[in-house]
Specification:
two-stranded antiparallel ribbon; about 260 residues; lipoprotein; 8 helices; binds magnesium ion; Transferase(Phosphotransferase), domain 1; cell membrane; binds adenosine-5'-triphosphate; mainly alpha
Length: about 260
Amino acid sequence: MTLLYVGGSVPLPWSIRMKIALGAAKGLTFLHEEVQRPVIYRDFKTSNILLDADYNAKLSDFGLAKDGPVGNDTHVSTRVLGTHGYAAPEYVMTGHLTSKNDVYSFGVVLLEMLTGRRSMDKSRPNGERNLVQWARPLLGDKRRFYRLMDPRFEGHFSIKGAQKAIQIAAHCVSRDPKARPLMSEVVEALKPLPKLKDMASSSYYFQSMQTARSRTIQNAKNGNRTQAAFTTRKGTPARTVSSQTSAQASPNHYPGLSPQPQT
Ligand SMILES: Nc1ncnc2c1ncn2[C@@H]1O[C@H](COP(=O)(O)OP(=O)(O)OP(=O)(O)O)[C@@H](O)[C@H]1O
Ligand SMILES: [Mg+2]
């Protein structure tokens, strides 16, 4: 099997991002719901999603995976391991691990794919460093959903799909683990998304909103990175996608998710 890692410079289009999300969700569904002894993956994050040439996602790094609870147990008690920015709050607080921790992490990754932001980004202003914290107020707001969307889509994302994906991500990162969906439900919800074609770029509403937004940004000129990204000229290079840990990582990229063939 050839597993490919990622790096590259072109932002991935909507259909491919959603294909990757779907593939990764299927991987977690398999571990949680389709094997005899359920497994909690525990370290679900972008850098552990490997892609092949067709963007089929494979989960790597089972080093932290745990057998799920057996019998009447509701959780496994563990030392809290995993990656900051992806672990569910109740797991961080109590060490009680359930598959709902993976669901939370999946929500974070889905948000990374939608927003183009990293789960933790210290180069951003206070209040924007933790992706979930930044996104939360916008997650339930259907009218302002586009503020979450990666500016590098340049409007080439499905409006219905974006709303649906945001809704899924919001469920996954629910503070209450019981409110989080099963991964099989996430798979079902994600299935239609890669193929949706109601692109925001062709909607009059989105275009006028975008124009108004760049005007505000021009006026504000406060150097905020996200806003700056909205004014990025088409075809501007420097969209390096590298691993999350890379010091040169672009603040807007979502790490580990664009193809760069290795062997
Ligand atoms: N089989 C592989 N083929 C190509 N690239 C890989 C492979 N395994 C890992 N990588 C890439 O190498 C880098 C380092 O991976 P590694 O698993 O050591 O760290 P990580 O994923 O950032 O953190 P963690 O140790 O929590 O998994 C990551 O960017 C990862 O995507
Ligand atoms: Mg890894």
